[in-house]
Specification:
The protein has helices at 62-69, 92-95, 114-124, 129-142, 158-170, 188-205, 216-222, 240-247, 261-266, 291-300, 314-322, and strands at 8-9, 12-13, 21-30, 40-48, 51-55, 77-82, 85-86, 99-102, 176-180, 208-213, 225-230, 233-239, 250-255, 271-277, 280-285, 304-309. With 328 residues, it is an alpha/beta fold. The protein folds into 2 domains: 8-244, Rossmann fold, CATH 3.40.50; 249-310, Alpha-Beta Plaits (2-Layer Sandwich), CATH 3.30.70. Helix 3 packs across helix 4.
């Protein structure tokens, strides 16, 4: 499966409206040391504006990719853009004012209030002091910390600390935010509140979101696009609906008449029969091509009247992307 939507040449992405593209890169390789194995291996991908879920097991390369897109790591090969700006190009420094970052682990100043810290981060992001203070009040209200904003964060719960981190990522009104494990350490109610905020950030402010997580439920709830990484490589990428369709192998077959014993046994040519009942058969196809079932039926003298793809859960999509050879 090819994930390149365009060819990146210098600072431009050909054949694309850059207003619609969040990030794009081609043959991107990142190493932590010249002699080390690459942490990211030849990534080629374009992502449109929206909420992008970045999934993969621990060590897959999610945090490395975020650091590269933030300009904290320099690619050893390849090229890429963020919001149309070339990675490590002459305009890269200005990009910092257009993006926000919520790290996985916090680095909060324990004896400072949320208001003081968010206002300070606003100034670091290029806002004038007065504007930074005004925006700190606004974003802390947005994340639900307006009544606690003057308290030292040392007394905050884990959920409140996570929301301070989100506020500092939003204080300068970025066009794109990177969220690294935003629900880390939260209980179910805290996770729900954080994900609700992520949805609101995109819906109400139009901010693009790239959310890195190992929690399938979080990504499934908020993302409209998905990138699956493993061992520094892209295993699958695209819209959530498109990936489910592309990787779907489970189907329900309905025949006009019940199959005879020989025909039922021959269904193994298509895949694994999961369930059979009154002329209906649930199959896990060997190849993700439902059209092959009609060709099989014609060759076996059976009348296949309906093929219904079964909607896969996100965990099934993930497993198939990571282990395509097993059909898991």
């Amino acid at each position: 499966m090819a994930y390149s939507l365009s060819h990146i040449e210098g600072h431009t992405v050909a054949a694309f409206n850059l207003e619609l593209i969040l990030i794009a890169f081609e043959n991107l390789e990142v190493r932590y040391a010249a002699s080390a194995a690459p942490a990211l291996k030849g990534l080629t991908l374009s992502l449109e504006r929206g909420i992008v879920g970045l999934l993969g097991p621990n060590g897959a390369g999610k945090s490395t990719l975020l650091k590269t897109l933030l300009g904290l790591l320099t690619p050893s090969r390849g090229s890429g853009t963020v919001l149309g700006v070339a990675l490590n190009g002459p305009e890269a420094a200005r990009l910092r004012a257009r993006i926000g970052y919520m790290p996985e682990y916090d680095a909060l100043i324990e004896d400072a209030s949320a208001y003081e810290q968010v206002a300070f981060w606003g100034e670091l992001s290029g806002l004038a002091p007065e504007s930074a203070r005004d925006r700190a009040h606004e974003v802390l209200y947005f994340v639900g910390l307006d009544e606690s904003r003057y308290r030292p964060v040392s007394g905050y719960s884990t959920g409140m600390r996570q929301r301070v981190k989100l506020a500092q990522a939003l204080v300068h009104s970025p066009e794109l935010i990177f969220l690294d494990e935003p629900t880390n350490g939260l209980d179910p109610d805290g996770r729900r509140r954080m994900l609700d905020l992520v949805l609101r950030v995109h819906a109400e402010q139009g901010t693009g979101v790239i959310l890195a997580s190992h929690l399938l439920g979080d990504v499934e709830r908020v993302a409209d696009q998905l990138v699956i990484l493993d061992q520094g490589q892209i295993k699958a990428a695209g819209s959530m609906a498109g990936l489910r369709k592309a990787l779907a192998k489970r189907v329900e077959l309905r025949f006009l008449d019940p199959l005879d014993v020989t025909q039922e046994a021959a269904l193994a040519e298509l895949g694994t029969v999961l369930e059979a009942r009154n002329g209906l058969y649930d199959l896990e196809l060997t190849e993700a091509d439902p059209g092959g079932a009609f060709r099989w039926a014609e060759g076996r003298g059976a009348t296949l009247v309906q093929v219904t793809p079964r909607h896969d859960r996100l965990d099934e999509v993930l497993l198939r992307a990571l282990h395509p050879q097993t059909g898991a």
